[in-house]
Amino acid sequence: MFPPKDITKRDYISLNIQESATSVRGTSRSLWRQWNQLSRFQRNILYFIVGTIILIIFYLLPGDSKSGILDESDYNNIEVVQDTLKYEKAIEDIVVDNVNQDHKDGGEVIEEPEFQPEINQADDDQIGEPPQPKPNTLKFNGPQNSRQKAVVAAFKHSWNGYKEFAWGHDTVKPISRKYHEWFGLGLTIVDSLDTMYIMGLNSEFLEAKAWVDKSLVFTLNKDVNLFEVTIRVLGGLLSAYHLSGDKIFLNKATQLGDRLMPAFSTSSGVPYSDVNLGTNAAHGPKWGPDSSTSEVTSIQLEFRDLSRSTGEPKYEEAVAKVSEHVHQLEKYDGLVPIFINANTGQFREFATITLGARGDSYYEYLLKQWLQTGKTINYLRDDYLLGISGTQKHLVKRTASNKYLFIAELVGATKEVKPKMDHLTCYLGGTLALGVHHGLSSEHMDLANELVKTCYQTYAIHPTFLAPEITYFNIQNVKDEKPMDMYVKIHDAHNLLRPEFIESLFYMWYFTGNKTFQDWGWQIFQAFENYTKVEKGYTSIGNVRNVLHTRQQDMTESFWFAETLKYLYLLFDDTRQLIDLDKWIFNSEGHPLPIYES
Ligand SMILES: *[C@@H]1O[C@H](CO)[C@@H](O)[C@H](O)[C@H]1NC(C)=O
Ligand SMILES: *[C@@H]1O[C@H](CO)[C@@H](O)[C@H](O)[C@H]1NC(C)=O
């Protein structure tokens, strides 16, 4: 936005003026005294001589210089002038924003936004930094009711296990009391920062912040997944920065963003799935040439926010290019295949179409990017609407017996309907409700309500009251029989403490105030308590179908801290005011980021 070359030019000009100012100041007093000693006649003669000299110089000079800075040949000067204007415009915009926000801010929960005074911004510009708004920080008062207290207790129980056996490592194995390393980025700590901040766990937050400050480094010679690290680590750091206002988090986010950028150096601009933070080498996944569609389209909220927070446009430019590219590709009534080649930029033909794994957050981030940018980028909203109408046309199915609605998948060249739904797909109810709140078709709310009811059933039909990873549905009527609506295959019966349904319950509660959604969440929370809690934390289980053989798997994924417990805590907020969904947008890992005006 403010290219460094022009800033140097400005510096150079002001330096010259300063130098000549000092040299004049030294002799000015004695000259003045001599001038006063002259008679009026002598002074008039001097006036005449000086005036004549100026006229002669003016006529003798070549024509070019006479017309001054408005002449085209003096192009540099014009550039300088224009840049100054652009810069002042930027300040105006910020000041206007500030005023608007002041008016809108009614509640006590949300602090009024503070922006750096104009003078500081001018200084920033001279040392090469564009003006940056200060984050819109929030304050929280801790749990307000018994359900929230229970959730905070669960968080602390889990956190203590992590602290004791896995501190500084990615995830804890709470049964064997060991740790698991995935990227070597202290995933659980970074993913938990904003949850602790929102829950009012201040000493835990400060301890985690100190670890981030001293020990979080991005120099490991290790491949990481661009998408996972973006939503968990970049998103976690940026959210912690915006909520707390602490620049430590922004600095770390910037370091990480810079090391993720090599992933975008492909011929199509569609990023590789993997990047080595230490060596800057990026490449496709080990198992094939393609990136996942949802992965390359679910990094935009975070990279854009990094650009907006630092004033450095390159991050946003890289991810906007990906979105624009995918926008241009041909789709199946707005639906996308789940694989895309980073080199050719094309979808893999006949890849599965699903709103579950590898497809899900493509649709989520279309809506959320549109909201993040103040509803100013229309193609994002249009593609989202196309995706939902394609879903209604091709993927929405009902069970034969009780007519439960679910979102099926399409497989292969024939696009055969596969009556199966990942638990991941249960995010969609919440996203639909968010869109309706922002003015999109109220029909989407009917779909949201029905999907949420089905997702609830995927929990309620099991004796553990926990949902499996994948559920299959009976859509064929069998003569004289009422087949079961849903069933689970043995390899899909695990529960990883996933958040998507709780996330949807939070949105449904937030937008409707219907306490049924809170009560459903409370039932599920109790099920987590009954079947996933162990002495040193909470664990994934291998089987939701038998309370006597849950096959505890000895793993606490970081999204348990980042999302499941955070969304439970927000779901049990009776005031529905902890986080204003007109001002904040949650990324795919449950990290709130600010909504911008454009
Ligand atoms: C609240 O939501 C439940 C579940 O969708 C629904 O059955 C019930 O009718 C709703 N209550 C009201 C008052 O809308
Ligand atoms: C969890 O355990 C409590 C107490 O034993 C019991 O009342 C409740 O029904 C159980 N809930 C689930 C979902 O299993």
TrEMBL record:
Its main location: endoplasmic reticulum. Residues 121-144 are annotated as: Disordered. Pathway: Protein modification; protein glycosylation. The chain crosses the membrane at residues 44-61. Coiled coil: none annotated. InterPro entries: 6hp_glycosidase-like_sf, Glyco_hydro_47, Glycosyl_Hydrolase_47, Seven-hairpin_glycosidases. Keywords: Calcium, Disulfide bond, Endoplasmic reticulum, Glycosidase, Hydrolase, Membrane, Metal-binding, Signal-anchor, Transmembrane, Transmembrane helix. Disulfide bonds join C426-C455. The keyword Cell cycle does not apply. Pfam families: Glyco_hydro_47. It is a single-pass type II membrane protein. It is found in: Endoplasmic reticulum membrane. It catalyses: N(4)-(alpha-D-Man-(1->2)-alpha-D-Man-(1->2)-alpha-D-Man-(1->3)-[alpha-D-Man-(1->3)-[alpha-D-Man-(1->2)-alpha-D-Man-(1->6)]-alpha-D-Man-(1->6)]-beta-D-Man-(1->4)-beta-D-GlcNAc-(1->4)-beta-D-GlcNAc)-L-asparaginyl-[protein] (N-glucan mannose isomer 8A1,2,3B1,3) + 3 H2O = N(4)-(alpha-D-Man-(1->3)-[alpha-D-Man-(1->3)-[alpha-D-Man-(1->6)]-alpha-D-Man-(1->6)]-beta-D-Man-(1->4)-beta-D-GlcNAc-(1->4)-beta-D-GlcNAc)-L-asparaginyl-[protein] (N-glucan mannose isomer 5A1,2) + 3 beta-D-mannose; N(4)-(alpha-D-Man-(1->2)-alpha-D-Man-(1->2)-alpha-D-Man-(1->3)-[alpha-D-Man-(1->2)-alpha-D-Man-(1->3)-[alpha-D-Man-(1->2)-alpha-D-Man-(1->6)]-alpha-D-Man-(1->6)]-beta-D-Man-(1->4)-beta-D-GlcNAc-(1->4)-beta-D-GlcNAc)-L-asparaginyl-[protein] (N-glucan mannose isomer 9A1,2,3B1,2,3) + 4 H2O = N(4)-(alpha-D-Man-(1->3)-[alpha-D-Man-(1->3)-[alpha-D-Man-(1->6)]-alpha-D-Man-(1->6)]-beta-D-Man-(1->4)-beta-D-GlcNAc-(1->4)-beta-D-GlcNAc)-L-asparaginyl-[protein] (N-glucan mannose isomer 5A1,2) + 4 beta-D-mannose. Its cofactor is Ca(2+). GO terms for biological process: carbohydrate metabolic process; proteasomal protein catabolic process; response to endoplasmic reticulum stress. Its EC number is 3.2.1.-. Ca(2+) binds at S588. GO terms for molecular function: calcium ion binding; mannosyl-oligosaccharide 1,2-alpha-mannosidase activity. The active site is at E228 (proton donor), D360, E469 (proton donor), E500. The keyword Phosphoprotein does not apply. Belongs to the glycosyl hydrolase 47 family. Involved in glycoprotein quality control targeting of misfolded glycoproteins for degradation. It primarily trims a single alpha-1,2-linked mannose residue from Man(9)GlcNAc(2) to produce Man(8)GlcNAc(2), but at high enzyme concentrations, as found in the ER quality control compartment (ERQC), it further trims the carbohydrates to Man(5-6)GlcNAc(2). This is alpha-1,2-Mannosidase.
